[in-house]
């Protein structure tokens, strides 16, 4: 394919993309097929000779589209949002054309530099303490990672390195492997599985801190565990706090946990993967109070800030902590020291939406969640299962887990809307997350009518 | 920005991309600016109100383009290629629109399934043993990773887990931390720094195996180190072989190293990041002989197979080894269990080029490297420093390192072509890699005239 054909096919693809997104509501949000469906629809080997673009695009509709869970349908309420916007897509086109690999300044100066400045822009939108901003006299700065999991792993490894050095500075006879075997990391029992996985990769112990009735970690509980572990000869070194847990969007008490971590020489990492985007709104910024105690902070603009995947932003208070852990230059701060020109997406989205446009997006989606919450509250067959703070509503039918499992099965089978469940204190709960950029009040109202209709049918069939 | 504006701006961007790539030769391949150039060119904060697309695109030319190292210029001969093609860019546009996050089958069936089948297609192109192909009765299969570094880390962690279990199965009283402290991994002294980094992350020892006069690891040397380490009470568990090293594209002797690893219960991972793409050509496939002994194999189609970054393909012989190490389901085989719909790029490129088109691309670029090699060989002021097997030529002026450093400085400063150096046996060597898809014989000839002109001037100035 030469440039002339790309001009033609590229414009056709722009229309295909716009058509797909404009008419996405007409497609069932969730596919109706069995695992393994695809293999029979395409050849077992690549073609030897080139095929035509027309044939390929026909197969997109025949093979791919029937197997898509449409994350950007306004009827998609599962997981957390995956950000998507036209400005980000335009930036990705440019990024693909430039096609640089930014593993050092020389390999791509603009890529390296725009990233640092975009992290400063975003850090300022969040009102991060100055020590996290690179263009100041502080020692911190930000970097783009692929995922929150990657950011968690990097912070844990940096903390591990720092802890080993600190212990050995005092007890020079202790071997590294002895110290490693005594290190303990902590996180909420509500934390994402990737936190536990980071400890598995880093070969250190991880303990789950029990949460309170709001599914949040409180200072007392962590303090108790740390003291027990220290008494047993272990070395607490890391705590991963969560702001906006995956099951219920709960917030750990970082204003109290932070001073405890600082006092105990424990690295505090804050994972705000979903919730972080909301902190650009002054009314939600208090949820981030306590950030000043953190050593590192991460959230995913690719979840809720209209920047297509992947764009997970991480800030550290001391760049040298990361550099020390990886024996690398500042420019190699990344977990994988290779990347695309991802900051272009941030630049396009920030400039074409403006801060006000981004705030409007967050506020609209929180309002939609509140609207759904009101609908649930007004129906006494249902109950709300966790405080609705941002764009997630956890709810269930009053009654057994089985009843709610059956309700979800019917919802999934109907394919009009898509939800996923979670477990909260042993209870099977439905999660309703506002996801698509184009979700409006009418979608919320229709979703609720649909849910209540299925619930009505289900309850009718129950033995009394 | 709504769909209507995206249709308009998207088509403008398609033309911008095509114009950029058609006229890329007119731009200096390497930027002429100092680190920190960008911060002064843009505001210190994001705008509050939305800005116009026209202003943004003007800033792309004003702020971004002057800071780009043009990886797709036919005058770019640095590092290794970064793959780029129009079909891959079209696939990325579609991928952005679908915008699914493929962390489970249900989250995106087509994404999960197309990936498995595309890895089979590619595995068959490489004539991988059947045990690596998912659609067979074997226990293996392939998965897309972001980078070769990520694949190396995953293989090392899987090997670590397997080794601990094996030792503890025999000596049940040994603690995990004791076993970990005795594990030793090995790799070539020519291996990429990411291999050493994987060991650092995994908290295991790594030893560098000295290479022979062709910069390759031979069986004898690894065997000697393994025996010494075993005698010292250590536990050899992992060897990362390299096919096509970064400095000189050297090939470790895997047909001999493989049986040694198998006999010693050491996991053999093969990193063929750059060279792997060439194995789709029957004449280069013998370089992969010995793959049957490997536990895992990785290369980067995003380097040399016309699939834009990121697309690093990894196969394992036993899926359960990886699943066991990460306590995860097969669908979560990834290092980061989140991803974009990357297999679309493979599907588009394989179908629109066909196997023959891909082979033609590899063969053309190897021929261009051979052409450059001949030019160097015909000039007795220069010498070739490593056998030219694929698309990389290592060469230097006969004489001191300082002389060659000065030559490279002049090349870099002139900005007509771009090269980077390497060290081979203490000698400063220039690497000339065929990179851009559009590089032709005339670019090679012109590059050589340019290099010899600068060398002539430099040698004239030398005291005799």
UniProtKB/TrEMBL annotation, chains A, B:
<dbReference type="GO" id="GO:0005737">
    <property type="term" value="C:cytoplasm"/>
</dbReference>
<dbReference type="GO" id="GO:0042427">
    <property type="term" value="P:serotonin biosynthetic process"/>
</dbReference>
<dbReference type="GO" id="GO:0042423">
    <property type="term" value="P:catecholamine biosynthetic process"/>
</dbReference>
<dbReference type="InterPro" id="IPR015421">
    <property type="entry name" value="PyrdxlP-dep_Trfase_major"/>
</dbReference>
<dbReference type="GO" id="GO:0006520">
    <property type="term" value="P:amino acid metabolic process"/>
</dbReference>
<dbReference type="GO" id="GO:0004058">
    <property type="term" value="F:aromatic-L-amino-acid decarboxylase activity"/>
</dbReference>
<feature type="modified residue" description="N6-(pyridoxal phosphate)lysine">
    <location>
        <position position="303"/>
    </location>
</feature>
<dbReference type="GO" id="GO:0030170">
    <property type="term" value="F:pyridoxal phosphate binding"/>
</dbReference>
<comment type="subunit">
    <text>Homodimer.</text>
</comment>
<keyword id="KW-0127">Catecholamine biosynthesis</keyword>
<keyword id="KW-0456">Lyase</keyword>
<dbReference type="InterPro" id="IPR015422">
    <property type="entry name" value="PyrdxlP-dep_Trfase_small"/>
</dbReference>
<dbReference type="GO" id="GO:0019752">
    <property type="term" value="P:carboxylic acid metabolic process"/>
</dbReference>
<comment type="similarity">
    <text>Belongs to the group II decarboxylase family.</text>
</comment>
<comment type="pathway">
    <text>Catecholamine biosynthesis; dopamine biosynthesis; dopamine from L-tyrosine: step 2/2.</text>
</comment>
<dbReference type="InterPro" id="IPR015424">
    <property type="entry name" value="PyrdxlP-dep_Trfase"/>
</dbReference>
<dbReference type="Pfam" id="PF00282">
    <property type="entry name" value="Pyridoxal_deC"/>
</dbReference>
<dbReference type="InterPro" id="IPR002129">
    <property type="entry name" value="PyrdxlP-dep_de-COase"/>
</dbReference>
<keyword id="KW-0210">Decarboxylase</keyword>
<protein>
    <recommendedName>
        <fullName>Aromatic-L-amino-acid decarboxylase</fullName>
        <ecNumber>4.1.1.28</ecNumber>
    </recommendedName>
</protein>
<keyword id="KW-0663">Pyridoxal phosphate</keyword>
<dbReference type="InterPro" id="IPR010977">
    <property type="entry name" value="Aromatic_deC"/>
</dbReference>
<dbReference type="InterPro" id="IPR021115">
    <property type="entry name" value="Pyridoxal-P_BS"/>
</dbReference>
